[in-house]
Amino acid sequence: MRFVWAVVAFVIAAVMIGAGIAQRTVFQGPSETTTTVQTQGSTPYTLIDGSVLTSTPGAQTLRVGGDGQVFVSYGRTSDVKAWLADTGYTAVTPGSDGGVQTSVVQPTVTASGQAAGRSPVDSDLWLEEYEQTGPLSTTFQLPSDMSVLIASDGTAPAPADISVTWPIDDSTPWAGPLIVGGGIALLAGLVLYLLGIRHVRRSRRPRRKGLPLPVTEPISIADADAAAKGVVSESPARRSRRAFIAVPALGMSAVLLAGCSADAWPQLAPSETPSPTATVIVPDGQFPPAVTEAQARRIVARVSTTVAQADAALDKTAAATRLTGPALAERETNYTLRAAIPDRAALPAIPAEPVQIILPQTTGAWPRTLMTVVESADAATPTTTIMMLTQENPWAEYKAAYVGNLEASTNLPELAAPYVGATQVPPDSSFLVMAPQKVAAAYADIINNGQNSASHGAFDTANDLLLSAIQDNKTKRTDELNQTGQGTAEISFSASAGPASPIALATLDTGAIVAVNVYESDTAKPTNKDAVIKLDNNPAVKALTGVDQSATGFTTTYSDQVFFYVPSQGSDDQIRLLGYRSSLLEAKVSP
């Protein structure tokens, strides 16, 4: 019976080991699948739709052939299509047969710029981009709402040799257990086989009988001595047979186990438990944020680098590529002054990092807004910069429109997470204690009339450092004029809302951070018809006007970029100053 069970064990072992080896060899499928995209090469851009990339689960490996410049980027499908709306491109979409199909899409809009020859490099719309000369290969895992853009330099036809590869799960989790189980069955069969042989050998021996007694054999002295010493000898033949039986079983197990890799075993490790995070509820129908955190940091770095280069070269044109509105106006004036006055100080640099706060607008249209708060990395001049950046259209870059410095004691209101974003508050919104378009004029009225202003009670003036700085400047300018022209000249001050439109982003408490532009002007005039206003101690006004004296006087204007927190309608809180930047804007001879 032992031989029967041994044979059964051998059969089971052969089946299990054979099945395990077959899973790792003849039955193992391919490790990846590839879809080839062959375009006509007639357009400068190729767009691979996100539905193609997600047609097979897993990471996507994109390979683009070519001998010249190869450019690849990816972004939200809606953003990429908006960027391509003014030019023809080749669209790659899923085909009816499970493959892909290509079609040429014609322009649908006319851009303000020149579409032909427009380089896709460094657009603020891309979440990531890759560029090199010659074939390019990269791996990513994009969702269905993102697409890939392929180009050369924006002028030459896009590379036509494209393929997308996905990995296929070819793991065989039962191969290892089958081979090991087969090895165990084989070992059990060998044991049963040995036991069967032993049983047969014992059954063939002569059995003892009571009478007559067997003939007594003589015992050799050597055997007797060995027995007396407790030594039992074994013949070489028996030892070699047992060794021969044990070695095949162990050798077979080692050989089989050597070919089992990690993917030949079931993965029984428990999955990691994610750490709890704060729950953020996104309103139904809300658009996604205009930019991701990575995009925002890259945009800030590009703005910082470009402005730093423009500051060094006093290049207004370069500055205009990353600045607009009040932020650009103050830089242009500063460049003019620094060109005329060697020791004129530059404006504070725009820091690139660390970016502490990112608040993108939630929108699918243009213009778009992004607010950031960046700390200065310079320990000698620690500052915290707050910026409002805007992107006018899909082909424009983000430009800083408002730039200010936060006070050290400033407490920002609670803001939404960067991946949630904030809605932009309309200028005429009635959901705030004061509409954004009225804030600049109301604040200017406080500058002009102080406590007599009708808006005085709406603002937290007690903790407003800008108001105190403006008052100090008024006193200083009056004292300077009295020292040189007392009795022959006078100075007057006035403030007004600047021409720049306000920008407002909502906070979590339904209030808003509002950036506005305020102009402060002072006019010095002679009170005697024979007197003149001289600029001996005012090289800045002299440089801007081109004269050193005037019989009609001079008007000097400062531009204030002011950031406020404006509470929601019905709140008992006051409008609170968050930060500001005040700079000389212009000077002219009074009429």
UniProtKB/TrEMBL annotation:
Source organism, top-level taxon: Bacteria
Alphabetized UniProt keyword annotations: Membrane, Transmembrane, Transmembrane helix
Organism: Microbacterium trichothecenolyticum (Aureobacterium trichothecenolyticum)
Membrane-spanning parts: 174-195, 243-265
Record-given protein name: DUF8094 domain-containing protein
Domain DUF8094: 289-588
InterPro entries on file: DUF8094
